[in-house]
Specification:
With 212 residues, this protein is an alpha/beta fold. The chain has eight helices and seven strands. The strands form two sheets. A five-stranded mixed sheet has the order 1-7-6-2-5, sandwiched between helices. The protein has a two-stranded parallel sheet with strand order 3-4. The two termini are 29 Å apart.
């Protein structure tokens, strides 16, 4: 961690520990080094820093490209390993930036649902996360956050002091589907992207707010 990241990481950990009385399970399931995708459900603006704060290694985050136009904000985001992407977080340019971080041995957080839930329930997984997984060579760690919707969902203007829980699952590997994706036709390739996304979302849903 660089100095800026470590300061932010320390502040967020203290914030989650005191204001939200957080509990973290399964952090040992995340590889300490090397490329890895952290795939989490998304209920609140609290989620990205929460997933990162639960680990003792730095991770990469997605941030809207437009935010980097402001010198001070842009510099801070870069120091926090933010990856500039377009509004939807997709496109060839954004995918290349994500893959570059993964191939360089970085960890990156992705949200298969694509956006925050409006009612606290899971949204269907989008195929984009499946594309990223297939194009990469890294494991995927499913992550589930509990309590962040009640603490600071779309319907809440100021964070409430509700307990939040963070659970990292066991890594998922997609070597078989990656191999098939190299030789299959385009219709099947699209099916593979969605299949991977659905399998990741199912793994997230199976995580429980306690130790295994």
């Amino acid at each position: 961690m660089n100095l800026s990241y470590r300061i932010g990481w320390t502040v967020f950990r203290a914030f989650y520990a005191t204001y939200f009385r957080w509990r973290v399970f399964g952090a040992e399931n995340v590889p300490a080094t090397g490329g890895v995708i952290l795939a989490s459900n998304h209920a609140s603006f609290l989620d990205p820093p929460l997933v990162g704060a639960g680990l003792k290694r730095d991770i990469n985050y997605l941030a809207r490209e437009s935010l980097f136009r402001f010198p001070g904000i842009g510099a801070l985001l870069r120091s926090w390993n933010a990856v500039p992407v377009d509004r939807d977080g997709g496109g060839a340019k954004g995918l290349k930036k994500i893959l570059d971080r993964l191939f360089a041995g970085g960890a990156i957080i992705l949200f298969p649902e694509g956006t925050r839930t409006r009612d606290g329930n899971f949204l269907p997984a989008r195929s984009g996360v499946g594309l990223t997984v297939i194009k990469s060579t890294v494991p995927v760690v499913p992550v589930r956050v509990f309590g962040t919707f009640a603490a600071y969902g779309r319907h809440i203007k100021f964070p409430r002091p509700r307990r939040v829980i963070l659970k990292y699952g066991r890594p998922l590997h997609f070597e078989t589907l990656r191999a098939e994706a190299k030789v299959c036709d385009k219709p099947r390739l699209k099916e593979i992207y969605q299949q991977v996304a659905d399998e990741i979302m199912a793994a997230i849903a199976k995580l429980e707010p306690r130790e295994d």
